[in-house]
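Posting for a labmate who doesn't have an account.
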Amino acid sequence: MKLLITTVKWLSNLFIGISLIATTANAQQIDNGTYVIKNKYSGKVLDVKNASNADGTTIIQYSNNGADNQLWNVNYLGSGKYSIISVATGKAIEVYNWDTTDGADIAQYSYWGGENQKWLLSDQGNGHFSLINSYTNKGAEVFDWSTSNGANISQWTYWGGDSQQWAFESVDTGPAYHWPITGDIVTHDPTMINSNGTYYEYQTGQGIYGKMSYDGIHWLPLASVLPNGLSWWKDYVPDHDGMDVWAPDIKAYNGTTYMYYTISTFGSNQSVIGLLSTTDIASGNWQDKGMVTYTTTSSAHNALDPELFIDNNNKPWLVYGSWFSGIKVTRLNGTTMKPTGSLYSIAARSGGIEAPSLTYRNGYYYLFVSTGKCCAGVNSTYKIEYGRSTNITGPYLDKNGVDMLNGGGSVLDAGNADWVGPGGQDIIGNNTIVRHAYDANDNGTPKLMISKLNWDANGWPKY
């Protein structure tokens, strides 16, 4: 039986190459949270054997009984990697003893952050994920296709069988949580990234203003990314003042960090999107990659508010747009990171729409936009709305089934008496939302806001 299974696995690797697909996705696949992790083939769940606290205790499968040794805290670490830690023991699952062989044991051990304790998830459809070890590049599976309680969980060269696919079933969407941030928090159109444990935030401002934080709570100022601007900007926007840069977006892709940004003037669609890149954010060594796309006063749309989005197949896209004909999305060349192919319309609204941000979760692409009017302090009417689609190019429907191309959009955040006009949002993975809002108790000053993004039982976002 084992020989037959091994042969099937080898043939699947040879003809399909699923292992390459499974390990290339580097976007966040699921929210941080507490989960039961269920095998697709056996229908049984990951379990710390006998609920033991001992390092080296093997991980088994067992019928779901709701015990703490079957609950797992899943935390996104960046670069597509996760830790998976037992609620009962506080210890992480790992490939035991750094073993790289097929059949090696998956066990628990005190968490210390080694690569053998990090796991990559890739959506295989229908709510199931592969679970690939970052160190060995092999998949967690139920050994020998067993359906028995107590069967061992081991690693094996990934081939995509049902015994190597797992459903992550959330047991708690969690309460609303707004980060209690302090320090340098005056902000407009923020974007944020975590690089090697340090948070970096960039925003609209002179030469792309930035901040940094070691914990995500207290923020310190950074020097502008482009303190002298770039001479070619005026080739596309002659009336630009030379330093004002709008709505940057920062994302990592294939070992490089990219920053897209806008050069424009208020109320005009004569705009250009530019691109910078670096292999080390901390160094500040940003390289100018020039013009990405532009629009003129005769264009139907506007090259404004860019966002790099990596889809579920690890392919890069650019989503952008605003007033005029709304929000667009287009594929990017994975080498140049500039547009290739068609431009798709995905959302439009009279009265203002801009600041698109995409995320992927459980089979859906979610589009977040800011609608209404920004930049008027306490008189701003910005609010954050969303819809979702099974296809990145749409249609994006809101909770009532209305297409966002036809003015649809369900409201996530319309502000309150203290915080007016929230918008300019950036979705980090699919569990954090960064945005600005105008402080009604400080003369309408725009300030940074960061919150946990939760999801309801029907898959819609909420605080």
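Reply:
Got it, the structure tokens are right above this. The chain has three helices and 35 strands.
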